[in-house]
Amino acid sequence: MKVLLATQKPFAAKAVEGIAGILTEAGHEVVRLEKYAEQADLEAAAADAEAMIIRSDKVTAEVIAAAPKLRIVVRAGAGYDNVDLAAASARGIVVMNTPGQNSNAVAELALAMMIFMARTQFTPATGSELAGKRLGVQAYGNVGRLVGAKARALGMTVSALDPFLTDGQIVEGGAEPVHSVEELYAASDYLSIHIPALPSTIGSIGYELITKMPKGATLVNTARKEVIDEAGLMRALEERPDLKYVTDVMPDNYAALQEKFGLRVFATPKKMGAQTAEANINAGLAAARQIADFFATGNTRFQVNK
Predict the structure, then answer these.
(1) Cβ distance 96 to 303 under 8 Å?
(2) Which of 304, 254, 271 is nearest to 9 (CA)?
(3) For the chain, which domains are there?
């Protein structure tokens, strides 16, 4: 089978070597498309591919239409909103992610962002400590649990909300369960967002929720830009000069936020939650193993579409 490794933002050389080794040993041919300039380049490269490994690359309906032999797409990472799942499902193409492989990297970044904002972005101004503060975790999956564990090690108390987990499962993970998003925000000095961008979550975090947070609270977003109602965020920060917002998914209105609120807001230049050497390698190798297993045994364990 021909496997296309399509990465506008390439994997580390060690990851590429490992991916190629796993797939070649399993009898597959690996073709690389790296640092491509146009979406049309991806469409052309996909024309005879039977499998595809991607990172943040966009597998649109057009890409799928241009790839008549395609049977599986694996997104090396947790999020998969860069793949048109409906178009893939209509063609019977399996779409997978690699859950857990980037989790530690994202969790460490979330905690680093909390410290960065607590210390006023490392300016000479007097900052504060995380110890003794209350952390709320919105979605207590692979990343959320790691954020909670690291926060507890720093002396924070942790509460969590996850509609897919029972109270017992949340307690087992080391957090105190809460039963509504309003309760979570109202009780959190730091609120770490880990929800996916779904029709039910897009724009769901706005003025009403943010202004429920306690005085001096910080909202931390290492999830998706789309879950934030940016107009609502702007209004909340205007009315509550004690609140802060930090994210590794730059808002569309970031320039205006920065101009108005200065050190109370910060966004990384690009999404960097998974940008560590370890996560890069782990996700790439996991994607290669999942493709090899799919063709060998039909295993679809991490399939995210129907």
Answers:
(1) yes
(2) 271
(3) 2-101+275-297 (3.40.50.720), 103-267 (3.40.50.720)
pTM of the model: 0.85
SS3 letters for 63-96?
HHHCCCCCCEEEECCCCCCCECHHHHHHCCCEEE
The one-letter code for the residue type at 222 is T
Specify the 3-state DSSP secondary structure of 221.
Answer: strand
Six-digit token string for 111? 């905690």
Measured between alpha carbons, how far is residue 285 from residues 20, 21, 82, 288 in Å? 9, 9, 20, 5
Cα 103 to Cα 62, 176, 222, 283, 291: the distances in Å are 31, 21, 11, 10, 21
CA end-to-end span of the chain: 23
Q: Burial, 37: exposed, middle or buried (Cβ in 10 Å; 0-12, 13-18, 19+)?
A: exposed
How open is the CA angle 155-158-159, to the nearest 5 degrees? 165
- Closest to 59 measured CA to CA, from 11, 3, 10, 6: 6
Task: Kindly report, residue by residue over 74-106, the tens digit of the pLDDT.
Answer: 999 888 989 999 999 999 999 999 999 989 999
For 170-197, the pLDDT digits (tens) are: 999 999 999 999 999 999 999 999 999 8
In single-letter form, the type of residue at position 246 comes to V
Beta bridge partners of 246: 220, 266
Q: Residue 188 corresponds to which amino acid?
A: S
The number of beta carbons lying within 10 Å of the beta carbon of residue 306 is 8
